[in-house]
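Lecture 7 notes: from sequence to structure.

We start with a single chain of 412 residues. Read the sequence below before looking at the structure.
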Amino acid sequence: MDEIEDIFEFYGSNSEAEAEESNLEDISIDSESDDISVDEFTWTEDGEYLPEELLFKAEQVGFDPAFVDNVADQTPFGLFSIFFNQEMVTKIVIESNLYCRQQEEKKGVGVRRNHQWIDTTMEEIYLFLAVSMLMAHVKKHKMREYWSCDEFIETPIFSKLISRDRYWQLWTYLHFNDNEVDNSNRLHKIKPIVKQLKTKFKEVFRPYQNVCIDESLMLYKGRLKFKQYNPRKRKRFGIKSFVLCDCKTGFILDFLIYFGKQPKGDSSGATGTIVMKLMADYFDKGHILYVDNWYSSPTLFELLCQKGTGACGTVRRNRKYVPNFPKKLKKGEIVAKHTDHQLAICWKDKKEVTMLSTVHHSSMIPQEDKPSKPLMVIDYNQHMGLVDKSDMQMSFSDTTRRSMKWYKKLFF
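Now the structure, written as tokens:
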């Protein structure tokens, strides 16, 4: 089973035995095994920490010319079809036609207002996707208003492209996988699409040196076993994903959809397992990973260092092996401690900030009209937040509706 299948196995399992031990919410973020000895984290304030220089080994960065320059149709559609190629759209065509027949056998012919289904085609599905994305730029309160003949709200382009009833049929029977095969995996409904997109993201784009991992929450308030609640997010309810992003461009390199189950963590802990999965294809190339305090730990950073990958991030003081710092610091004061491979600092700005890094030193950088800041804080602020930028860009093409099923909403 290849790596992608392993991820599906981990994040889509429904085993009750795993549920008892492996629910991500039940795993303490500080739960790390003792595979790495405490002696390896002997922190000291003596001397200055000098990080090992990382040699970035990427021969080529950015978009792969083999996928972009050789596209015969140098148009938005031509570039779009790199990701949604004929193979993927043909899969949607087959499964949508099959799903309609299954529904007719179950409920009788004429399931949708006695409008007989005509098998869809690849060209029609591309048209359907184009119309759906156009809807995001022409906001209306109800779906039927896009085909309204009222002169005050009329938008003729939609009726010219596709009829209202046909669009609604395609919307109703849009499907991505056969319901009658093994569907024990929670990702089953959309698994082929997710698998192909993850593969394409990795093939088409080669990241620059700096990458980051963060959470993304897709708003969804319907009934769903793996729906998450995060009060810190603007969209508090929804489907959570862990996203690996290129810091220079914001391009999504890989992602994991959280489906309520998590394998037993390795020595880096539960959150460390997520990081190791997402970074698996980018080890030993000299990349620098930026993460927030939900992922950071000395154990994880040590493992990344062993795999030729730098790391930087905020860290919680109660994490295992994090050194003790004074409880009260004066504004602008910094305390630095280090091991052979890591530097930990505690710096007081408006609040106390605790950070870990394997690629920075503890120097302070002067700021215009502001107090000096540690170099790692400046770099962290510059490189984190790209996942939020990706979420913002996706919101520009938001075509979802209130009653949409979760797998269709996730697809769009």
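Residues 80-175 form one domain. Keep this in mind for problem set 3.
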